[in-house]
């Protein structure tokens, strides 16, 4: 077996809670023949192991090398069956699927009436919970059974099922088109970040308009509205229209408040909606509203009734900590935010296998930015190096690029200019390769390269000149994206006024707040 498959089984075993392990042993122990089975012995060995080691497994004598692949596959399947039976993993989707399976068994036994009765209840449950794909599948099976189970009401029943199938099919088509559009736009923002020029903006707008199905909002259900709001949100983020982001993220979150039962069925979508609502408020710079929504979010996810599983726990951890950090960027309170770094790093350890490299990279960039804002440039470089030295990262090209730009500035600030020329060359080559070399970055690199030729008494004038140049890009529709990652304007003002960058940002925030 390949390394990934080995890791998959080991990771699954290690992800089990105490109650899930107990459930698994009770499940396999229901048959006495399993008490000393190879797969159960392998489970016990993996449960105790600190890391996966195939040589250690073979040495234990539990299983021969030629048997290992089959035993592992069987163990993997048995664990999944056990988890499916565990009450903590039961949800409406599984209940509908289970009822559909029961109805299929009864149908094949010729017990048509019993099968139809189960299907009718399952269909009600599916429609009530916006599981329209399952509802359509149920209707299709009902049509098959009705064609064999003849009743006096068959004519009206046939019409009823035909209309129901047509309505569900139409809504499923709309949901599919909207989800496809949403996924493509989300994929774009993960891969490249915000749009870089007018050509890209036109491509995004054209793609959106071409693939957005014509809909009447009043005819849509929860599921279709959710995908519609998500698609609009991704387009708004790509175009850096943060007021529009706020609008659609609010609609997304409000949709759950209007349909509270959907929170338990779709906790991940609820969490993501709140995450993007907070992100939009962060970019708008509205800290009072941001803190209000962050407080509401934390209160909701910490209630005993909120769904709890490993996936939900990981997302709650990510989103809560991302935004607890973000509040310090809004008003420049970097010093206050420094205490968060060791706490989050420690809390990250249990989530190590459940948080992908992309989100870890975002944490490192936020840590680096906090340290830079607080004037701790060597600490900033340490976190940036975790991003820059990781050659396997392929997501968020924009963050990869701005990590290198911030790295240049931090090296200059830290006085580590003995290999600045090498850094300049590597950064320039990387930006060219990523097609990320824009006016703000060109000016930054040109400025840092020329620092070695500037006399100390001319330095402040050089900062002023660069400040005037970059100020012209602050409201540029495509160049302003640079300032979302690195507030270089405030940094330059701190050099000109001989004040900490945090003080500059705080002054700006207070002025904006009072205006």
Protein described:
This protein is globular. It contains 27 helices and no strands. The longest helix has 39 residues, at 154-192. The model is unreliable at 1-6 (pLDDT under 50). Helix 3 crosses helix 5. The protein is an all-alpha fold and 515 residues long.
Using brief descriptors, characterize the structure shown.
globular; about 525 residues; about 0% strand; single chain
Write the layout of secondary structure elements.
Elements: H1 3-15, H2 18-29, H3 38-48, H4 54-60, H5 65-85, H6 92-108, H7 112-128, H8 132-146, H9 154-192, H10 198-211, H11 222-238, H12 242-258, H13 261-265, H14 267-284, H15 287-301, H16 310-331, H17 334-337, H18 340-348, H19 357-373, H20 377-388, H21 397-413, H22 420-433, H23 439-450, H24 459-471, H25 482-485, H26 488-497, H27 501-514
Helix pairs in contact: 1-5, 2-5, 3-5, 6-7, 6-8, 7-8, 8-9, 9-11, 11-12, 12-14, 14-15, 14-16, 15-16, 16-19, 19-20, 19-21, 20-21, 21-22, 21-23, 23-24, 24-26, 26-27
N-to-C series of helices and strands: HHHHHHHHHHHHHHHHHHHHHHHHHHH
Q: Stretches where pLDDT falls below 50 for ≥5 residues?
A: 1-6
Whole-number average pLDDT?
86
Task: Give the beta-strand count.
Answer: 0
- Given the structure, what is the number of helices? 27
Shape: globular
- The proportion of residues in beta strands is under 5%
What integer value in Å does the Rg equal?
28 Å
Structural category: mainly alpha
Q: Tell me about the biggest sheet? A: none
User: What is the helix content?
Assistant: over 70%
Alpha carbon gap, first and last residue: 64 Å
């Amino acid at each position: 077996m390949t390394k990934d498959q080995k890791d998959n089984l080991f990771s699954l075993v290690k992800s089990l809670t105490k109650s899930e392990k107990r459930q698994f042993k009770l499940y396999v122990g229901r048959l006495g023949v399993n008490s000393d089975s190879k797969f159960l012995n392998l489970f016990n060995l993996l449960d105790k192991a600190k890391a996966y080691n195939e040589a250690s497994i073979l040495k234990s004598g539990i299983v021969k090398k030629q048997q290992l692949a089959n035993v592992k596959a069987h163990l993997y399947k048995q664990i999944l069956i056990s988890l499916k039976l565990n009450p903590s993993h039961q949800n409406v989707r599984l209940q509908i699927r289970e009822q559909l399976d029961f109805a299929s068994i009864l149908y094949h036994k010729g017990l048509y009436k019993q099968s139809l009765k189960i299907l009718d209840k399952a269909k009600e449950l599916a429609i009530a919970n916006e599981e329209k794909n399952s509802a359509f599948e149920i209707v299709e099976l009902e049509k098959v059974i009705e064609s064999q189970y003849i009743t006096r009401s068959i004519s009206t029943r046939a019409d009823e099922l035909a209309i129901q199938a047509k309505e569900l099919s139409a809504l499923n088509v709309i949901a599919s088109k909207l989800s496809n559009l949403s996924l493509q736009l989300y994929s774009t923002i993960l891969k490249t970040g915000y749009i870089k020029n007018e050509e890209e903006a036109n491509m995004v707008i054209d793609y959106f308009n071409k693939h957005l199905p014509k809909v009447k909002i009043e005819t849509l259900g929860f599921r279709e509205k959710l995908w519609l709001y998500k698609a609009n949100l991704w387009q708004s983020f790509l175009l850096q229209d943060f007021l529009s982001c706020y609008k659609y993220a609010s609609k997304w979150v409000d949709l759950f408040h209007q349909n509270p039962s959907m929170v338990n069925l779709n906790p991940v979508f609820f969490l993501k909606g709140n995450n993007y609502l907070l992100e939009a408020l962060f970019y708008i710079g509205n800290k009072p509203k941001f803190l209000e929504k962050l407080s509401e979010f934390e209160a909701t996810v910490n209630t005993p009734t909120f769904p709890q599983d490993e996936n939900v726990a990981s997302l709650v951890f990510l989103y809560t900590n991302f935004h607890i950090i973000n509040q310090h960027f809004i008003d420049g309170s970097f010093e206050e935010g420094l205490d968060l770094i060791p706490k989050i790093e420690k809390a990250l350890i249990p989530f190590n296998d459940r948080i992908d490299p992309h989100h870890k990279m975002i944490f490192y960039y936020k840590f680096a930015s906090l340290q830079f804002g607080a004037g701790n440039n060597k600490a900033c470089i340490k976190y940036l190096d975790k991003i820059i030295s990781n050659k396997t990262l392929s997501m968020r090209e924009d963050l990869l690029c701005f990590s290198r730009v911030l790295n240049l500035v931090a090296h200059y600030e830290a006085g580590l200019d003995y290999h600045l020329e090498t850094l300049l060359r590597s950064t320039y080559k990387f930006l060219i390769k990523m097609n990320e070399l824009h006016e703000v970055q060109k000016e930054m690199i040109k400025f840092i390269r020329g620092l070695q030729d500037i006399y100390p008494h001319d330095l402040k004038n050089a900062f002023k000149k660069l400040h005037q140049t970059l100020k012209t890009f602050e409201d540029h529709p495509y160049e302003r994206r640079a300032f979302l990652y690195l507030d270089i304007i405030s940094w330059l003002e701190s050099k000109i006024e001989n004040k900490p960058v945090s003080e500059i940002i705080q002054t700006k925030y207070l002025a904006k707040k009072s205006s």
